[in-house]
């Protein structure tokens, strides 16, 4: 955020809108000429921290950036407050703060090299490499140092940075993670999603392009650079399926509408006779609406979500611990009883939740349960910033679709095909395996950037044939 | 809860399921022979308090009751922890704890009398009268003292109480507030709604009847008494419209399905040409589904709710404070643009939120906005336990339907009729004004119990003609 | 405190000065015409609670009282916040708050009677009986109700109370516990000790007399009443020895000087050849100074107290737990080595600390250790408000002086005699066993008020012969 | 601490004993093979943090170091948790943590150079330079890197460091700050003072010498190195006067006894007729005892310190704020009245407290007040780790002794002479101005290490003549 009074307020609101991208912790850095750089980092939700007058007063200035943390690679043990971004570094020409969305696949190697040269890391976060690379760059200003640093970084990165006078945004050459530009009054905003622009009343200007760096200042407005070798973009298709908020706009279309369209495609690909189409709330809701509209089978809220559920409910006894998902979800027993139910969910990862939900539905007296999944089988881990379990823990990595159906114990189980998914996101001809338009590694095993560190730790890529 | 190991766990889970009935504070009392009565009362959500091993260990025993507080009558200033139920009293024959759902309309009078006789009140809660009346009863056991006390109480009350060995439940003679009985293993549960039975895996046995008292003990099971003059029941119709959870069962039917049916009736009573039917989330969702199904106009999530919104976000600047509902809701701009939108909400109370939502929708480029409200105009305050503003602040108390439409600035505004609402809850012939089956005072001004204290403070009943 | 702006500030300062009388918790009640009665009660030290602008702003008014809690009789388990005084009651003629210093010896009996009549106790504190007795009195104003109530109470009590317009102070007929009156500007203060008058800059006017009640208002100043049968006073001699602060004035003399004089008497009664007189800090310091001055043996700080020691240091391992007093005290090894040391302490209760201190001194290389104790052997528990262990745990209840010497393992052990103590507090002729001037039950077993409740629980008085 | 089970317990106890050297914050780092390095840093007292099982369990290992922070140079604004030592760095050959007691006088210059080379500072602490210098050293092991780093550092430093297997201690060439070695069981301890050895039951082995580095491991025991050019030591004389705890041993003698001896010298140099010798508690106590013993004037506790005073008491009103020291100290009015009082304090820095104490004493009715100060006039700031105000704020920098006496408004004021102080610490011939045995810059202005950074900021040394 740059060019507005009390930028920290705007940053806090934007982070609140992006809370779904990370709930563990959040941080904000601001700068104003009188107080220099100010910083606040806290565990927990934005609304529980960056709210009180008391904290916000410690963050003065017309320029600021922030970050919400979603634990991905990095910390083996518990996250410590020093792992929370933005990271700050004082350079000879002044300070800079950076916030990184994504994941660096050669971080082990970079860290080793930097330590050998005498850098001292303060966090367990891979993203800290970027600020050390910048500190060691021979370039004379911060945007140039940032280019220098990011050319050494492999992986997925949408980075937002700030100096005393400039706001900087960069997307990696493939544009795996999103980054958008907005305008509010005389100020400018950078954000992962458009829903953060909406909350601050900013107008959505455009997406930052893959491989683009923008340097924004009140004097010069938005200057665009292309510091990397040009490559064809590979945006993360999982942002459409799951990660982005349904009210954000990706590729010119509402994410909600894309998800509804996935439901439509799924109804075409995998129809079944039934009485009700019920979403697994809230993630399956848009696809269930689409499925119902395409199939003509009535949509119904067969499962109700407890809106007061947080992550802190600790079940005290064994007896209760086994209730599992019941704390979060309850079946609408009177509605479900005796019905053939199509359950629509966004994905099956480990399969444990799906299994429990199926049991709840059958306990409540449903006649049949049919699962319809709004994404292809998740068979490969993501190394670009989405937190997925190791390959062995992914149900689809070890079972065929029929084995999964039997494991989940449902009457039928169908996933949308990769081609169906591409059609739903607007690629009418489906996926071109030679030049796919998206990063779909979690479904296909086709990783557009080689996961160097993970391979060094023993991860094996799919056979080329696959 | 009685007759289960670690009753406090069951009570906590049940309160969590009932959190929508009160978010300000919660309390649990238990008893076991070794430690006697134990109590914990906390501000905030159940999941943030009654969770840690540390607190739950302080609540041993096979019998327990709890309460979640929703500030109604009583405290003028800030609630203090001593206002949080259950209330406890030590009597000559042993202690008892009570939790009261509802509101006492002659509490001022009772309190004055009790103080004159030398009782010392510890809270500002009207419900404390009950325990003092019990302390002063001449009867020799607690259930008899409770009958004695409740015969002096006017208003709406579903009361749950416990002694060292018994669980007691009572509904007032009109049965205004709900109370249900469940069975889990060898134990028994009393709860305001069936969703609390579901979460603990209890089987729904039956509703406690209006004017009934049940006394439950492991030895004698459920004993039923009728301590009051028999009257025809007047259950709160607003529980169907708004207060109860959609997955609870009232009168044999899922609340969700009743609300969907309200949408169906509303589509019949107030059709309009449009492109989309959108709920105001989450309260308008079931009625919007029903409206869409009856009208054939597609259902769509035009407004998205931020699931990380709590009540604690303090907007720090004037500029941001005015954003109001944007912190909680965002419009799906790409979806709404250029469309004629039917917005379905559950009620219009003050009208301020409705107005802001309409503005958001129009800002996002909607062509027309039509409001459809799943309840009749709320023109009278509730004195029986639902927190409503004073009469002057109710939009429908001062404006006609057309004035409200103009005030909200929408193309059309329609409320379901009182007859339509009765039909939706299953009274095929609509409302019989002579012997209405429900308490519908908030819509009709027809108060089944005279609000004594409020009338002493100047409240005027409607003319009989109305 | 009455008659000053922001009385709560004065009360907080006074409680801070009286912190040695109770560290567990503190409370303040104030009244002003606009806000009525306000109250704040907190666990922990005054300085950690009644300090912030935020809390003090909640306590407006020109009249207020407070209390610091020292757990005595009453709570069997952990103290709860509702046990913290002042206690408040709303009566038909307005509210009153009371704070009680001392202990009621017939509380069991009073509580039983009050519960039978329908009073509901909120705390486990015996002092709550007083406010219930007041609530049930037939008298028409609060001072009269208070007289009525206190005539039923047996034991030791200095009570401070407030109504909307009056400050009230009462001492029991024997005047066991202290209570003093001070004047600051146009206002009046009541306090247990004069050190609380000093801190608020108040002038010490006089002690409230045994059996006296004062009712203070801005209009009428100090009115004095004598509601009880006149009796000869028996002030607690232990206040001189241990309980009061050394800078307070009791009976016209500084407590410090009395304690120094005890040291002088002790040196006369129990001389010994040695190199150094060392106090056990800080309680033995004044007597050690007196002993040194009378004996001519140099005074030295052989034991140093860690001034950062609180009660919260939890030793984490067994190994360290055994270090015991070392966390609080350290020996000045270089000073003590090879010396014959006289250790002066105020009292020996259980003997455990004395034993550890002796070991520390010998470990550090002292040649001999001589204990001199500035009070007679503590052989009887106090039932009048000083927290002492049960009789069986008092070392002097089960051992002769020589047995104690041998148990502590020191070269010599001498206590001041009861006559010597009386001389030090100014009774030149020593103690008259027929009409002793002080309550010295902890030393003599001569209880001036029969401990009714404790006797019902099995406590046996000394034989009259003793 | 090295070579003991659960080293963190020992470190915590040691820090507790050293709490007088820094109360703002504390930190502990430990290492064990399984968990690697563990760290905890907290604001506040040791006893309030490093106590709970919960925190201590996070600090496993047989080797550990700690630090208590006393804000000296460095942070201009509020201290942040990242400013709290020990500092940790991961090097190619493994990690190291360091804790620094003292002050670096060329830190500005070092920091500038390190930033230019690409180091990123995380704190505002000068001490962080040491770990960055170590990170950039070309040496192949940590002790060598430490020598390398410390040779670039100017100023006063006693540094304790740890690697995975070694404990390291270093004193600067002048030995300005203390550092002692102890032995407990099979383990070794390093500490600023012997009182920290006492609390863990360790035996005092010897002082680390000026310019010495010891490297301690279970295998090789204590290895000694001399990495610096040999210089004649200049130990801080203020440690004797004020900084060290009275029960510590410095130069073979108890600090208490040295201070008592200062009082003796002061009585010889500056006698006066009076009735009582009273210490300003607690800092003036030992010197007052010495003064009394030498002069024969009785010692008395004329001023009583409130032992519950912390630094957190916030006086809420202007009226009360002016009471100042009264919250902490109270005069023993009954004792002081009409007496000629000699007040003994350890030092006069700004003079504000001395003035208030004098007023309290006169208010209480003292006939005369004579100040005797157990150190020479403090006329120069310390740049070697004692927190003193800027020169302009030191009373003795701007006033003669007679001007100070008049300013304080006392009958007489005398400081001990520098020669007298040297005699008291054991240099019978007094101070040799050519080769003084101590650093006495705060009294003499003779700085043994040029304060480079401060001179760059404008500080002027005394004329050589002085």
UniProtKB/TrEMBL annotation, chains A, B, C, D:
Superkingdom of the source species: Bacteria
Gene3D superfamilies hit by this protein: 3.40.50.2020, Glutamine Phosphoribosylpyrophosphate, subunit 1, domain 1
Function: Catalyzes the formation of phosphoribosylamine from phosphoribosylpyrophosphate (PRPP) and glutamine.
The keyword Magnesium appears for this protein: yes
Coiled-coil boundaries: none
Protein name: Amidophosphoribosyltransferase
DNA repair found in the keyword field: no
Cofactor note: Binds 1 [4Fe-4S] cluster per subunit. Binds 1 Mg(2+) ion per subunit.
EC number of this enzyme: 2.4.2.14
Residues that, per the record, bind [4Fe-4S] cluster: 236, 382, 439, 442
Glutamine amidotransferase type-2 domain residues: 1-219
Family matches, as InterPro entries: GATase_2_dom, Ntn_hydrolases_N, PRTase-like, PRTase_dom, PurF, PurF_N
Species this chain originates from: [Roseibacterium] beibuensis
UniProt cross-references to PROSITE patterns, sorted A to Z: GATASE_TYPE_2
Binding site for Mg(2+): 283, 345-346
Necessary cofactors: [4Fe-4S] cluster; Mg(2+)
Top-level class of the enzyme under EC nomenclature: transferase
Reactions catalysed: 5-phospho-beta-D-ribosylamine + L-glutamate + diphosphate = 5-phospho-alpha-D-ribose 1-diphosphate + L-glutamine + H2O
Functional pathway: Purine metabolism; IMP biosynthesis via de novo pathway; N(1)-(5-phospho-D-ribosyl)glycinamide from 5-phospho-alpha-D-ribose 1-diphosphate: step 1/2
